[in-house]
Design goal:
- By secondary structure, the protein is an alpha/beta fold.
- It contains 9 helices and 8 strands.
- It has a single domain, classed as Rossmann fold, CATH 3.40.50.
- The chain is globular and about 45 Å long.
- Bound molecules: S-adenosylmethionine.
- S-adenosylmethionine binds next to strand 3 and helix 9.
- The site of S-adenosylmethionine has 19 residues, from strand 3 and helix 9.
Length: about 290
């Protein structure tokens, strides 16, 4: 179901038809937002491979994506650049995320187990799970301004006071979380970056696995759904010497049923693959 059919409230200053919720075909990294085309390095940028906090990135050169909105050179290029900040309290700006490291309960005005989804996209999963589990705090981390807004609107429409979405680059997750701060982690259809020369952009790589072992509490769950099997196979292989246990794996969620039963929400991308009759893979890990 698209946003437009959910009766979401238009954002002031942003034309409603700008909320194009359609599948954007970005499996090979084709951008759907202007930010993806930005090339200019910021003044005072941290050294390549580190974030502005000085913590190492998870394997990707530094970019503009963790900059404050006012530091972007062309404010008019992307209406969501400023527009995403109109969606508080659901939306958190990049700088707010860094400041919350170690005390994320402040963002939700209450202590509760912190469940984090990387790349919520249009927000189906995050808002659906937040609605099912009001006893948990739910945080999405999304790089694209437009998708931050879409997710925020879904959280608002679902009445989820326990949901937030942070605009941030997930290659800098050490900026955001103290060791063991995350109770559970979800990654749904991460960009696969299939071509070899782009493989360095993949999230499901060794640095991400090591970060999981730092940031997710012992006993915490990691749930991954993906349409791109090689990425999952490679990731699991390189996790073999880390304190991560594979609880189970499903190689066709539509055919076999969700391994999480009712405690799962079909994502936007998952729906596209279901429609095409192509398998979606799911795996659950536990941090030991
Ligand atoms: C293929 S889409 C999947 C969206 C959604 N999870 C779903 O299943 O429908 C990947 C999502 O991850 C986001 N993303 C990609 N790289 C990211 C990064 N470095 N940090 C945060 N989000 C990222 C994209 O903007 C996009 O929303």
């Amino acid at each position: 179901m698209s946003d437009k059919r959910e009766g979401n409230v238009p954002t002031p200053g942003i034309p409603d038809d700008a909320f194009d919720d359609s599948f954007d075909g970005s499996f090979d990294g084709t951008p759907d937002d202007t930010e993806e085309t930005e090339k200019v390095e910021p003044v005072g940028a941290p050294p390549a491979g580190s974030s502005s906090s000085g913590r190492p990135s998870l394997g990707r050169p530094t970019s503009m994506r963790i900059r404050a909105v006012e530091d972007y050179p062309d404010q008019e290029l992307n209406p969501y650049l400023r527009g995403h900040l109109d969606h508080k309290p659901e939306v958190l700006a990049a700088e707010e995320g860094k400041a919350l490291r170690g005390h994320w309960q402040d963002a939700f005005l209450r202590p509760a187990p912190l469940h984090v989804e990387i790349g919520p996209g249009n927000g189906f999963f995050l808002s659906g799970m937040a609605a099912r589990h009001p006893e948990r705090n739910w945080l999405g981390i999304e790089i694209r301004f437009k998708r931050v807004v879409l997710t925020a609107r879904k959280l608002r429409a679902a009445g989820c006071e326990n949901g937030r979405v942070l605009r941030y680059d997930a290659h800098y997750l050490d900026d955001l979380f103290a060791p063991g701060e995350i109770a559970a982690l979800y990654v749904n259809h991460p960009d696969p970056w299939e071509k070899d020369k782009r493989a360095k952009h993949r999230l499901l790589r060794r640095p991400f696995a090591e970060w999981i072992c730092r940031a997710v509490a012992s006993g915490g769950l990691v749930r991954i759904k993906t349409d791109y099997r090689p990425n999952l196979d490679d990731f699991l292989a390189l996790c073999h010497d880390l304190p991560l246990r594979v609880d189970f794996r499903c190689d066709d969620i539509a055919a076999e049923g969700s391994p999480w039963g009712d405690d799962d929400v079909r994502t936007n991308y998952q729906g596209k693959f279901d429609e095409r009759g192509e398998p979606v893979y799911g795996v659950q890990l536990t941090v030991l």
